[in-house]
Amino acid sequence: MTIVSQPSTPGPSHRPTVTLPTPPLTVADLDEIGLDDPRLELVDGMWIVRPWPTPLRTRVTHRLSRLLAAASPDGAAAVAHRIPIQINERTELSPDIVVRPPSDDPPRRLVDSPRLVVEVAEPANRRYDRTVKLDLYRERGVPACWLVDPDAPSVSAWELVDDIYVLAGTATGTEELRVTRPFPITLVPADLVRPPSTDPD
Fold first, then answer.
1. I want to staple 69 with a disulfide (CB 3.0 to 4.6 A). Which of 9, 14, 78, 162 is the partner?
2. Which CATH architecture has domain 53-198?
3. In 3D, which of 182, 184, 139 has the Cα closest to residue 159?
4. Residue ranges per domain, the chain?
5. Which of 92, 2, 9, 4 has its CA nearest to residue 51?
6. CA distances (Å), 3 to each of 7, 128, 147, 162, in order?
7. Which residues are registered as beta bridge partners of 5?
């Protein structure tokens, strides 16, 4: 028996239908199935299918990953949409951005905690990012988690202190956000959402 998941918003691109096995599942089952779709996440053995990213979310994700890679003092990789994190044997999440130590051989998934995860929200998944996923990252011991809202625009940076996420800083619009974890960086939310035509050559 299978579950068939249709795209959330069918469009002119004719995005493919995804056929999913019936849960409950484990992370080991994912390897056996061989699905490679960053929208798919597994939470307590159940599928979560995130919406296709909008152009705005894609723009914000790629701009922020470039800023993080440039700010890293040791060449840490800021990877967008490609590396999931195993939380436990029945849960695997796919952050919009993962910052991991430098490596010549990118892993299929992270089993150790990354330095930072970033979630870029959309109306359909904003509550999921700020509740379920944030709590699972805390459980896994991820030291820093950023939540980005392109509609505001805003960035909130959370840091793990004594097994609890504490708000390290937040910025909206043209305000500056300065944080020190996973490394010192300053960013402006409005710069992440500006139209592509304003990018420097």
1. 78
2. Alpha-Beta Complex (3.90)
3. 182
4. 53-198
5. 9
6. 13, 21, 30, 40
7. 18
Residue 170, pLDDT > 60, answer yes
Determine the Cα–Cα distance for residues 48 and 10; give it in Å rounded to an integer: 18
pLDDT for residue 33: 82
Distance separating alpha carbons of residues 132 and 101, to the nearest angstrom: 25
- Each residue of 23-50: pLDDT tens digit? 899 999 888 888 777 788 999 999 998 8
Per-position b or e across 60-80, b if 16+ CB within 10 A of its CB: bbebbbebbeebbeeebbbbb
At 197, list the tokens. 């035509």
pLDDT tens digits for range 61-70: 999 999 999 9
